[in-house]
Records
---
Amino acid sequence: MVKLKQKTIFACQNCGYQSLKWLGRCPDCSSWNSLVEETSSPLSEAKAGPDDFRVSFSRETPRSVRDIGTAREERFSTGMRELDRVIGGGVVPGSVILIGGDPGIGKSTLLLQASDSLAKGKKVLYVSGEESSRQTKMRADRLGSASENLFIVSETNLDSITDSVNKLKPDFLIIDSIQVIYKDALSSGPGTVSQVKLCGQELIFMSKKSGIPVFLVGHVTKDGSIAGPKVLEHMVDTVLYFEGERNLNFRILRAVKNRFGPTNEIGIFEMTAGGLKEVSNASGIFIEERPKGISGFAVVPTLEGTRPLLVEVQALVSPANFTLPKREARGIDYNRLSLIAAVLERRSGFDFGRFDIYVNVAGGVKIAEPAVDLGVALAIASNHRDRPISSDCVAMGEVGLGGEIRGIGHLENRLKESARLGFKRAIIPKSGSQGISKEKTDIELIPVSFLKEALEAAMGGRRSR
């Protein structure tokens, strides 16, 4: 047996940056006091024999691309339509899915409920590293997850987990959570960069070799990213984020990476006393409490993955108490808000130099696409002029620096969803609206080319087609 020399490094616990000496501030992510001393003890040659699953996986013989089978992999339904939608229609054999979210958001609840459905005909091994088996059983009883094919073990040692997998040979493996799993070969504690990276690698290799789908639960840092090395997100097949306001019952499961399906797809759940309940009419949920006849409110059809979703954009323009006016955005990018306010000032004659501007997307939804620009601009202008936008009108479009309204994708799907929820008029970009008529979408269309036209149509009335 060859003894390999130990190596001491300082690793950032936020981004995984490594240094040979301690630094007060990480040069990569700029976080303070995040570098922790870690001592790595690599595996010896005796431990990495020919039967080691990591070695056998890496020694696959190269084959011509023409000789590799292209048969479609069978997907396994989780029994939850919203979860299946986010991961691309079901779980792919041998895939590794990482689920991140704030503590208490419902990650363990989601996986326990999914485990109960998967255990109907398949064996599921649920590894609970943060709770005892008895505590996990109590939570499973409350959720109604009591299938005889659902096996629970409270373990944090990776070697012991591997032994359990070899003995039970489950069809699905759930690790809750990856931050508490450790490998004896490393002297650093659980949750450090080295431990999370090595344990994640070995679980991924095991999944690829055996074909067992693996779910990994990951905690998030203050800025909302997966705790531990960022490289963990690059190694797995699918990365899901569980989002939601702590004081609201609604939760959004968002795919930010998916090798077997669309990205930016979302699933919507409601947290109840009996667990997570799927929400089928998401658009109606987010706009059902919108006030009517009050300025500063606009409804925008946004697109999350392949799903059209109607959200309520709220804006408040109030006199500034200080010399420098304030801009605050929730649910949209702050820089986008500043850009829209500048365009309104320069191209539409508004003066916000003495006013604070606050913009919020109701329901805790976060929107990244530019199609929300027009709705944000109309909500700000509506509140500033104290002239409400018609409650049966939706608006969508990207606002350019010249005040022009640019075209957006999937316009027809957005219009059909708006008509389904009872909206009668839609302010849309003129660009890209050719070929779309009221007969196709069952909604009155108001195509505009510039922001001034949209303002007139929303608050002054304008002929439509």
---
Amino acid sequence: MIISFKSDFLFVALMVSILAVVSACKTHKDTASEPPAVLQEFPETGIFFQDTVITGDSMHCEGRILPTLYRLMKADYPRLRTYLLSVHYPAKGEAPDTILLAVPTPDGAFGIYRIFPSTVMAPELAARYPEIRTFSGNSVDRPSEQIRLEITPLGITAMILTENGSVMIDPFCKGVSDLILVYHKKDLPPGAKQPFEK
């Protein structure tokens, strides 16, 4: 009887463990496939960023100094670039076109920003480098929160000015446009500069 009881107990424990693993896997899959909640309120903005994980040698990037805390994301850069370039620069005296963009934040959420083309380069430089485009904008929920965004053939960089400091978005590695880091600037080691800032 004792042996039978132990066997039954072990069998039940094993089944519970298997069910727990299956349930966890299903929950993870369902969560990963669900679109962020921002799409429900702002369906006109696409989602171009998805959380991802890389490990081992893939985490090495020469000259890259990682923040102490960050969010690693995979960017659908070709679609994002097409979406951003759909906004045309206004003619002189015209109000700029705007689009909504869901931008990842370090805390695992997304913020919605209304952005428009902005010119920071001299006209002759802009004509020489048409593949570089710059944008400005504000948070839909917090209008005082500003974003500056740039797209180039190397990827996307952005800075969000919040009341809690600057949030940075930049390529994980120079020349890799589909992996980005999202982090608070204050989480970089003191004096740290990224390869593309040198």
